[in-house]
């Protein structure tokens, strides 16, 4: 997750205290001052599957040395946070606040991840369930290898592309047929039962 979070002066004390899934993003709070290599003002960040982003709003309590969000929850499509703060951006907050920032962020770490490839087409296996043979409909010309994997993930068949496959030797059970392209990436994956 982009290097995660860390408390730079005391890495062994880094702590994630609360996390919440909200509007397809993961919100995290705890004892840290960096996320994905990005310095933070407050330990409240969100992960959008590609990068960490810090949130606006300076949490503060002039009577304590540590200002932090200790917990959060979602209720009626709103994110609520609570913790050791009495103001947000100088306005009274009294230890609990509703997040109304929408997509607002202060800063974001560099994006990380790998490109997701979409399958060029959908295949259909007929009949399904099958007894002796299956016919692959919609097989792309890009497919260079076909393999069949059992329910435990063991490869039980590996063949060059063919529209009809003999499965008579396979024991009864659930299987996954995977079609691979030149680079070894899966172009299609479809399940069948014998």
Task: Give an account of the 3D structure.
- There is one protein chain.
- The chain is mainly beta.
- It folds into 2 domains: 5-108; 124-193, Immunoglobulin-like, CATH 2.60.40.
- The protein has no helices and 21 strands.
- It has strands at 5-6, 15-22, 25-31, 34-35, 38-39, 44-47, 52-54, 59-60, 69-75, 78-83, 87-88, 91-92, 96-99, 107-108, 124-126, 133-137, 145-150, 155-159, 164-166, 174-180, 186-193.
- The protein has a 5-stranded antiparallel sheet, with no helix packed on it. A 4-stranded antiparallel sheet has the order 18-17-20-21, with no helix packed on it. Strands 1-4-5 form a 3-stranded antiparallel sheet, with no helix packed on it.
- A hairpin with a 2-residue loop joins strand 11 (87-88) and strand 12 (91-92).
